[in-house]
Model the fold of this input.
Amino acid sequence: MGKLQTILYVEDDLHVRTTAKLVLEVIGKYDVCECASGEEALQLAREIAPDLVLLDVMMPELDGIQLLHALRRLPHMADVPALFVTARTSAYDIERYMEAGAIGIIPKPLVPLRLTDQLRTAWEQRPRMALPQTPGELAA
Done:
């Protein structure tokens, strides 16, 4: 997994979603595929291969944690890094998000001018899968 380019962003609040998408596209130069619900995200995730998933926690029907579990069942989404965007930031909540497989959180309320840097920092600090060694590296 190399450069961060495509983001699947799931947020049920239209104002928050629109603002974040605008900031991420204009300032961050990312391609943002937005969804208003977990069901919509599951449909779209079958058609795209995002580099990162940005998830609201509190949504009707499927909450962010349930959605992340469902996304992980799609083979091409199993290892895609995910960040939760939430106002629920207690130690207990953060532990739940990390156990669900998130690489971190971005707290709400979002600060538009900080969002791109927060996302970039989380991306750069994410745990990485060890790359297989090439035969030349094994012989060295």
